[in-house]
Amino acid sequence: MEVPILKQGDYLIASIQSALTDADLSQLREALVERVGRFRSRGVIVDVTALDVMDSFAVRTLRDIAHMARLRGAETVIVGIQPEVAFAMVQLGLTLKGVATALDLEEGLIFLNRRGKERVDRG
Amino acid sequence: MTAKEANPSQPGGKSRTEDTAALLRELVAHLRQNRTQLREEWARRITQAKLLTAMTEEEIFAEATSVYDNYVEALETGTFEALQAYARNLSERIIPRGVETHEVVGIVLLLRDVLARSLFAKYHEDFDKLNRILDAYEPAANRIANTVAVGFVQERERIIRQQQEAIRELSTPVLQVRERLLILPIIGVIDPQRARQLTEQLLRAIRANRAKVVVIDITGVAAMDSNVANHLVQTVEAARLLGATVIVTGLSPEIAQTLVTIGVDLSEMATVGDLQGGIEEAERLLGYKVVPQAEAQPA
Fold first, then answer.
1. What is the mean pLDDT of residues B206-231?
2. 3-class DSSP string for chain B
3. Size of interface A-B (CB pairs under 8 A)
4. Left, alpha or beta for B67 (phi > 0: left; psi -120 to 50: alpha)?
5. What digits encode the pLDDT tens for the residues A20-59?
6. Minimal CA separation from B194 to chain A, in Å
7. Quick check: B227 pLDDT over 70?
8. How far apart are CA B217 and CA B117, in angstroms?
9. Cβ within 8 Å, pair B234-A81
10. Partner residues linked to A67 by β-bridges
């Protein structure tokens, strides 16, 4: 199933609706990285609220998306990780190091707005 | 009574079990007859052996009386339910007063000795009879000692389980002190099960309260091993995945030393000396600024 990617101002929002295969995940990664450049986006939000399982491939793909998007000039934040999923992830050692996370979409937007302001402040 | 006494002294024709039953009846009659004297002797031996020091002499005598009566009854009827119930009831009363297992076992064995001695005294002229009486008495007495001891230990374990349950339920409050700021004070021993429960509760609370910052205060934790420390690190990581920052406060000098000595990597964890500092840091992260009213008014 393809993941819809919405453009919202300076940000891209990818809302995952159901469990994804590895191919779907790879496709999401390519689509996001490509669109960050096309729309000159400053931020990417990946919403995983609907996922109740997160395997190592999914976690690695999310981390790759964050790192690749950063290279293309956009900050990434993963939102909506469920408490049980979070606990299972840390037990498996999948901690998304170096990737920003937020409670939900709203928090993710606040986070990106603040980051954007910091960047403006710096010059 | 003379008739009963006559029966077992003439073996032959009677089956073994009937013989034992008759001997036990005779025994019970003897114990009933000498109740006062044997009971006093027993209570004296208990005091002498410095058992049940948590209880007064009158209490010991009162308990000794009921134990004695129950003991004789168990010997007479051969059923142990009443004795079991009494042992449980007795344990319930004396465990909170600090009576130890060895004391309970000790007094029951003393009673066994006192009664055996009285049997020696009574039958010392008829060795054969004494033998048969002891044959009947010993298995029953051992079973009684067993029943009482097991009853005591079971009661003790039940109380311990109950208390563990209570501690578990009491000890994991997640408190909201400000909008988006949670405090989790941990007190007491953290075992793996409790650590897991703490984490689950915290993660759920983060979601329910939309918390941004969590202060985990471990001032009340006396010791920590590598398992618990790693679990704490995992909790911090999991909270971060939900978008919350965790600040750990109140690490005692001992815990700090232990953690550094066993080499747990806490570099990912924000720590502040005490709870006050932790809350101040959390407020800073949330953008609060607490100032005294006098300073705030001009603005």
1. 89
2. CHHHHHHHHCCCCCCHHHHHHHHHHHHHHHHHHCHHHHHHHHHHHHHHCCCCCCCCHHHHHHHHHHHHHHHHHHHHHCCCHHHHHHHHHHHHHHHHHCCCHHHHHHHHHHHHHHHHHHHHHHHCCCHHHHHHHHHHHHHHHHHHHHHHHHHHHHHHHHHHHHHHHHHHHHCCCCEEEECCEEEEEEECCCCHHHHHHHHHHHHHHHHHHCCCEEEEEEEECCCCCHHHHHHHHHHHHHHHHCCCEEEEECCCHHHHHHHHHHCCCCCCCEEECCHHHHHHHHHHHHCCCCCCHHHHCCC
3. 50
4. alpha
5. 899 999 999 999 999 999 999 999 999 999 999 899 999 9
6. 15
7. yes
8. 62
9. no
10. none
Interface of B with A (CB under 8 A): 199-200, 203-204, 206-207, 210, 234-235, 237-244
Amino acid identity of B203?
L
Nearest 5 degrees, angle CA A34-CA A39-CA A44?
A: 70
Residue whose tokens read 């603005």: B299
CB B184 within 8 A of CB B214: yes
Which of A89, A107, A111 is closest, CB to CB, to B241?
Answer: A89
With an 8 Å Cβ cutoff, are A95 and B241 in contact? Answer: yes
Residues of A in contact with B237 (CB under 8 A): 90, 95
Residues of B in Cβ contact (< 8 Å) with A111: 243
Which residues neighbour A87 within 8 Å (Cβ) at sequence distance 6 or greater? B199, B200, B203, B234, B238
Instruction: Please report residues of A whose CB lies closer than 8 A to that of B242.
Output: 81, 83, 86, 101, 103
**pLDDT class for B78, splitting at 50, 70, 90?**
confident
- What does the block give as tokens for B269? 């964890």
Q: Look-up: residue for tokens 């003439």?
A: B10
ipTM of the modeled complex: 0.82
For β-strands A11-15 and A5-8, DSSP reports them as antiparallel
Which range of A3-7, B8-12, B222-226 scores highest in mean pLDDT? It is A3-7
- Looking at the domain covering A5-122, what would its CATH class be? alpha beta
Q: How many residues does chain A have?
A: 123
Around Cβ B183, how many Cβ atoms within 10 Å?
A: 21
SS3 A79: strand
Residue B185 CB neighbour total at 10 angstroms:
19
Q: To the nearest whole angstrom, how far is the Cα of B201 from the nearest Cα of chain A?
A: 9
Query: Are the beta carbons of B242 and B276 closer than 8 angstroms?
Result: no
Query: Does B210 contact A95 at a Cβ distance shorter than 8 Å?
Result: no
